[in-house]
Specification:
- The structure holds two protein chains of two kinds.
- Chain A is of the alpha/beta class.
- Chain A has eleven helices and seven strands.
- The longest helix of chain A is centred in the first third of the chain and has 29 residues.
- Chain A is globular.
- The N and C termini of chain A lie far apart (65 Å).
- Chain B is α/β, with parallel strands linked by helices.
- The chains are: A alpha/beta, B alpha/beta.
- Chains A and B meet through helix 5 and helix 6 of A and helix 3 and helix 4 of B.
- The complex binds thiamine diphosphate.
Chain lengths: 331, 320
């Protein structure tokens, strides 16, 4: 590891910073949930940050990202503003969706983030279609679609992968496999060889990666996105990770042994990234500075978001539709 | 004026819009061979297989992909083959297409047209005959269009393609071969403007899609009895022309809404309630019994709303 080149170190340091920003954003969100400031359900990705940093970090700003209910990390990695994200989670004016979506519908079209989704697996076909439009328009953008291991048992997974393969579309499918679908161990409800085998059945080349090793995710994603952008068609990345928190912000996750979680904690991605950086010569102070900067950013964002007002009731009738808008006739 | 079939009128509309806007494209099963009803015949020759695109038998993917494509700078026309099959894509339409604009705070619109042929058509039985328009009228975010004539099918489809909302566009399968005059030139109809099929002072009658023609037949019989029917073709269910219908109902004092779809929970109930709330008119509705549609002609016909039933219903409405 000490053989890391300077450019590699700088890149890894950026991942380290980004992963801390994601971690601190979600800790702030959990704090908000406890305080009653986050109003609806949230699904933290604590422990899974390497997938967001490594995969999404390889996208250009004009590339497109589709995410899931567990999408805070992906969204931040795509370039969304942390304060606008917290405003959205708090349901406030200035949220990325004006406070009308919340955590499960967080989106920031200005950075190509076309939405988290409250329906498991629904983003897969939407991503395929977004890539379809890119192909029709003759652009060189790519789409990245992230979903959980539970989503591979829904029909749209099959339909979307087949679609992307048939039309040879520029899309990277990323299965962020944290081992669980809500409270269920996904392996107990999934037949066959799992996500990569299913992807390969459609002729989509699949890569398996340690999803807690940000360098490994980064390298795999860089290679796959390069192949896609060169016109190679869809690619599939299966990233194995572990969800350190409960399914939602209030789930104590009592359905799994504490020893399993403790073991996973030793393998979590920020710790591992820091170790590599340490062995490449970074000081404790530098590593601590990344954590501290992320914490400070999110503390400030939290306070600003908390101070922002709720949108007015007139927003209930805005942006529904043009023809027959409820702004004209609600009943 | 050109005489055209309902099917050809829609094809002309799509071709005109595709010539006008390079980002309009159509996708669905079998479109490369003209589509299951021939309503796309010849288009692939002009526009190529990327813009008149075949699709796997994956209704959820067809609809879902078009949601993504509509949010990424194109205007898809989504072919569902039968409204019955579109039920395989309800999440993509109701939870995704209809909600994206609102829940993302207006960051994106979803300009797509979903063509979902409806209606009874030659012993097509329970899974190829339904009229499900009221389901979509219930969903905020969607526009629902049910054209009844070749002229309307051209002008409304053009308007639907230019609309930035997701439009559920329900053509009636029994009308495909119907011929009618279609005005030449660029004509678009606004949504929410009903067509007065005929004027009459005794009773207001409201319908849409193929049922309009059955109502017209009934109105002719009623005229022979000296009963004047003010017959309206709603054209679009959302938005619907409240002003025209309420004005007519207030004038005649009696209104009946007639539709092919099941009466229970049908859109006729919405119109009837609105008329009752806003005018002193007496209202009633006539739709199909709440039973699946059968295959054998006598079974199929048992749930058909016929002209003679409409006549009898109107008489009762007037005398009651
Ligand atoms: C179609 C659908 N079914 C069920 C749910 C409820 N639900 C929300 S998240 C979840 C688990 C999803 O598991 P996975 O895809 O592995 O993603 P993860 O939560 O692990 O990130 C379930 C069942 C849903 N949102 N959508």
């Amino acid at each position: 590891m000490s053989s890391l080149r300077n450019t590699d170190i700088a890149r890894l340091r950026a991942h380290h910073r980004l992963m801390w920003r994601i971690r601190k954003l979600e800790e702030a969100a959990l704090r908000g949930l406890k305080a009653g400031v986050v109003l609806g359900a949230i699904h933290p990705s604590i422990g899974q940050e390497a997938v967001a940093a490594g995969a999404v970090g390889n996208l250009r700003r004009d590339d497109i990202l589709l995410s899931t209910h567990r999408g805070h990390g992906h969204t931040l990695a795509k370039g969304a503003d942390s304060e606008a994200m917290l405003r959205e989670l708090f349901g406030r004016v200035g949220g990325t969706c004006g406070g009308k979506g919340g955590s499960m519908h967080i989106a920031d079209f200005s950075v190509g983030m076309l939405g988290a989704n409250g329906v498991v697996g629904a983003n897969i076909v939407i991503a395929a279609g977004s890539a379809h439009a890119i192909k029709l328009r003759g652009e060189d953008r790519v789409v990245c679609c992230i979903f959980g291991d539970g989503a591979i048992n829904r029909g749209p997974f099959l339909e979307g992968l087949n679609w992307a393969a048939v039309f040879k579309l520029p899309v990277l499918f990323v299965c962020e496999d944290n081992g669980f679908a809500a409270t269920t161990r996904t392996s107990t409800m999934t037949a066959g060889g799992g996500p990569a085998v299913r992807a390969e059945a459609f002729g989509i080349p699949a890569t398996l990666v340690d999803g807690n090793d940000v360098q490994a995710v980064d390298e795999a994603a860089a290679r796959l996105i390069g192949e896609i952008r060169a016109g190679g068609g869809p690619r599939f990345l299966h990233a194995k990770t572990y969800r350190l928190t409960g399914h939602t912000g209030v789930d104590p996750a009592a359905y799994r042994p504490a020893a399993e979680v403790e073991a996973a904690r030793m393998l979590e991605p920020i710790l591992r990234c820091a170790e590599v950086l340490r062995s490449a010569g970074l000081s404790e102070a530098e590593l601590e500075a990344d954590r501290g900067a992320a914490e400070a950013e999110m503390d400030i964002a939290y306070e600003a978001a908390f101070a922002a007002p709720y949108p007015g009731p007139e927003e209930a009738f805005r942006d529904v539709q043009d023809a027959g808008s409820p702004e004209e006739v609600a009943f | 004026m050109t005489i055209m079939t309902y099917s050809a009128a829609a094809k002309a509309a799509l071709a005109e819009e595709m010539r006008r806007d390079p980002y309009v494209w159509a996708v669905g099963e079998d479109l490369g061979r003209g589509g299951v009803f021939g309503q796309y015949a010849g288009l692939v020759e002009e526009f190529g297989p990327d813009r008149i695109s075949d699709a796997p038998i994956s209704e959820a993917a067809i609809m879902g992909a078009c949601v993504g494509a509509a949010m990424t700078g194109t205007r898809p026309v989504v072919e569902m083959r039968f409204s019955d099959f579109a039920l395989c894509a309800v999440d993509e339409l109701v939870n995704q297409a209809a909600k994206a604009r609102f829940m993302f705070g207006g960051q994106s619109k979803v300009p797509l047209v979903v063509r979902e042929p409806i209606g009874m058509w030659r012993s097509s039985a329970a899974q190829h005959s339904q009229s499900l328009e009221s389901w979509y009228a219930h969903i905020p975010g969607l526009v629902v269009v049910c054209p009844s004539t070749p002229a309307d099918n051209k002008a409304l489809l053009k308007a639907a393609i230019r609309c930035d909302d997701p439009v559920v566009y329900m053509e009636h399968k029994n009308l495909w071969p119907m011929e009618g005059e279609v005005p030449d030139g660029e004509i678009l109809l606004p949504f929410g403007k009903a067509r007065q099929v005929q004027q009459g002072g005794d009773i207001t009658m409201v319908s849409w899609s193929a049922q309009v023609h059955v109502c017209a037949e009934a109105a002719k019989s009623l005229a022979a009895e000296g009963i004047g029917v003010d017959l309206w073709d709603l054209r679009t269910l959302w938005p619907w022309d409240r002003e025209a219908i309420l004005t007519s109902a207030a004038k005649t004092g009696r209104a009946v809404i007639v539709h092919e779809a099941v009466q229970v929970g049908g859109f006729g109930a919405e119109i009837a309630a609105t008329i009752a709330e806003h005018t002193g008119a007496r209202v009633s509705r006539l739709g199909a019994p709440r039973a699946p549609i059968g295959y054998a002609p006598p079974v199929e016909n048992a749930v058909r709303v016929t002209a003679s039933q409409i006549v009898a219903h109107a008489r009762t409405a007037l005398n009651g």
